[in-house]
Each structure stands twice: as C-alpha cells, then as structure tokens.
Amino acid sequence: MLVGQYDYAIDTKGRLNFPARFRDAMGETFIVTRWLDHCLAAFPTEEFEKVAAKIEEKGLVKGRKVSRMLYASAVEVTPDKQGRIQLPAKLREYAGLDHDVTIIGNRSFAEIWNTAAWNGDQATSDEDFTAAMEELDF
Q1: Which domains are delineated in the chain?
Q2: Where does the SpoVT-AbrB domain lie (predicted)?
Q3: What pTM, to 2 d.p., does this model score?
Q4: Burial class (CB in 10 A: 0-12, 13-18, 19+), 86
C-alpha cells in the first residue's frame, strides 16, 4: 500500500526522485499520466490495467474522453540508479511542476503534485474531507 507524503525538487532536465518506499510497489517500470486536479498519477502497470478495465466497462463512447486523456499523456518510466524518473515537458507543464514537487501515496498509486498546489489544496480541504467522510458514512 502506498501511503505518506514526500517532498522533492525536480531538476532542470525534468528528472524527479521517486520515493524509495514506493519504488518496490511500483515495479521496475510504471506508468505516469495526467490525473485529476492538475496533478500526475503514477501507477504500477497492473493497477493501470485495472483503470483501463473500468474505462472499458463504460464503453467506447462513454469512456472516450477519459481514455483519450489518460492514454495520450501516459508514459512508461523506469527509475535510474539514483531512483529518478524522467517526466516529459508536457506532463510537467500540465501539473505545473517547475521545482518543488510533493509525491503522495494514494493506496494503489501515487500522485505527483506541484508543492504549492498541494499545500493550497490541503489548506482548503478540511470541510471537503468532512463532507466526503459523512457521504461515505464513516
């Protein structure tokens, strides 16, 4: 299970350290793609296949926009010996990743955030969290 929050800096070549605690769960190579709220998602290949199956269940017509967004922007990454992954410019631009980056565990996948955006989201999310927990009847 991927849990926790890790802060890093992306270098000028678009390389990002990926948490050592997550690398084992992700596998030798994994998928990074656009995700919700202008962040990126990093999926172990088998988890990305599960997402693909859910989209496929909705059918080609209903799932087309999500399918296009996820697959067109997806890249397969392999951490180097220092544990860094290379993020393409288009993905960095989409998520606003220019320097400070926060990587969070989200159970079966990780989210990659611009740190300022993550901090801003967290500052305003207490009421949203409470409402969501109530909706789930916790």
Answers
A1: 5-136 (3.40.1550.20)
A2: 5-47, 74-117
A3: 0.91
A4: middle
